[in-house]
Design goal:
Order of helices and strands: EEEEEEEEHEHEEHHEEHHHHHHHHHH
Radius of gyration: 27 Å
Strand content: 15-25%
Number of helices: 14
Largest sheet: 5 strands, antiparallel
Distance between the termini: 44 Å
Structural class: alpha+beta
Oligomer: single chain
Helix content: 25-40%
Number of strands: 13
């Protein structure tokens, strides 16, 4: 629909966009409750692609005689929080308007929301223009959001070691086999110094590989599998520092691997969020992403991969056993109509992690584990 502004709208003016969806021969649409539905072709509104789905006989949980209506996000796009409503048009004026707020649309995301009891079917039949039910879908972007990034648990670490002398030496990079024969660091190796009291609380896995130097009160930690530039960021995070944006953009995958290896879940999820934003998921890269997500327990990356499979209709039979095992029912859950309407199942990984962190619960599990944790927590709320 075309909107003409006369003058300059104020900054807080509600910038609604609208799209008309017409269901022709509405009375003849199949109406078996909980089964029959009709979905519109894709349309673009508020910068995203959508489909409108109507259940003339109602959804499984609808009251008898009621029509269910749902809006589904169908494309890629920036993270947004959308407010939308449905208005049925009867040719002379609008009637039967319903509004909902807080639909979150994420990159690669498949998200939907709506009403199991939108309107009585008899009322909608009376509102048809001829034989056509006309639904105006209005929406506006409430806010642009960003990927969920967990709080650094080491944010106050600096206070714990002020005045202490570093008592650990890290050697990152280089060749493990040459360490006993060389007298100085090779060019691919760098030394870093740290405090055991800090790492004990914020990177305990690093301390498990400490070997005491003979005749010295310092501990030497060998990090042969991590490049110095990557380990520098790992150590920085352990001390409560924020990682530079350029480091996350260039090295997010390597930081994920290092954080996963040294059991630093918040760092891993922070780097994963950046990796998913820049990762190209297509037929050529899908398998590698699935295996990477499985090896490092990356729920956000797996969600993005499943989204690609569902939306593109990609045939997973051609994937290796490792890649197929990593899916383990995710596609079925993503396409299950009942799951989309379930309070917890329809949440995206970002939303699940936000809610779990608010409750002080583990945010590093699989999507299923996070859903189960929220269900359990809800019982005591």
């Amino acid at each position: 629909m075309t909107i003409v502004d006369v003058g300059t709208p104020p900054d807080d003016f509600e910038r609604w966009e609208a799209h008309l969806v017409r269901f022709h021969d509405f009375a003849k649409l199949s109406k078996q409750k909980g089964i029959d539905c009709t979905r519109s072709p894709k349309f673009t509104c508020a910068g995203h692609s959508w489909t409108l789905q109507i259940h003339p006989g109602g959804w499984k949980t609808s009251s008898d005689g009621w029509v269910a209506m749902f809006l589904y996000h169908q494309g890629l796009g920036s993270v947004s929080k959308i407010k939308f409503n449905f208005h049925v048009k009867d040719g002379s004026h609008e009637s039967r308007a319903r509004t909902t707020t807080g639909l979150v649309v994420e990159p690669n995301g498949f998200e939907g929301d709506g009403y199991t009891n939108f309107a009585m079917r008899a009322d909608l039949l009376n509102l048809c223009v001829g034989t056509t039910l006309i639904v105006e879908v209005r929406m506006k972007v409430l806010e642009q959001d960003s990927f969920f990034v967990p709080q650094n648990p080491s944010s106050n670490a600096l206070h714990t070691f002020l005045g202490e002398t570093p008592n650990i030496v890290f050697e990152a990079g280089g060749n493990q086999k040459r360490r006993n024969t060389r007298s100085s660091l090779d060019p691919a190796t760098a030394e870093f110094r740290g405090h055991e009291s800090v790492l004990e609380n914020h990177a305990p896995q690093l301390l498990k590989i400490i070997s005491r130097e003979k005749g010295s009160n310092k501990a030497r930690v060998l990090i042969p599998t991590v490049k110095p530039e990557i380990f520098r960021h790992v150590l920085r995070y352990a001390y409560g520092g924020e990682l530079p944006k350029d480091a996350l953009e260039k090295h997010s995958k390597e930081i994920v691997e290092a954080a996963s290896h040294y059991a630093m879940p918040q760092l891993k999820l922070t780097a994963e969020a950046w990796f998913v934003q820049t990762a190209q998921i297509n037929e050529d890269t899908l398998e590698g992403h699935l295996i990477f997500s499985r090896n490092n327990n990356l729920a956000l990356l797996k969600e993005a991969a499943v989204d690609f499979i569902v939306k593109s209709g990609f045939d997973t039979d051609g994937l290796s056993d490792k890649a197929q095992i990593s899916l383990s029912g995710d596609i079925q859950r993503a396409t299950n109509e009942a799951a989309r309407l379930d309070k917890f199942c329809k949440m995206r990984v970002n939303e699940l992690r936000k809610r779990l962190e608010e409750k002080g619960l583990d945010i590093g599990g699989s999507k299923k584990q996070m859903i189960d944790a929220l269900r359990e927590a809800a019982k005591s709320d």
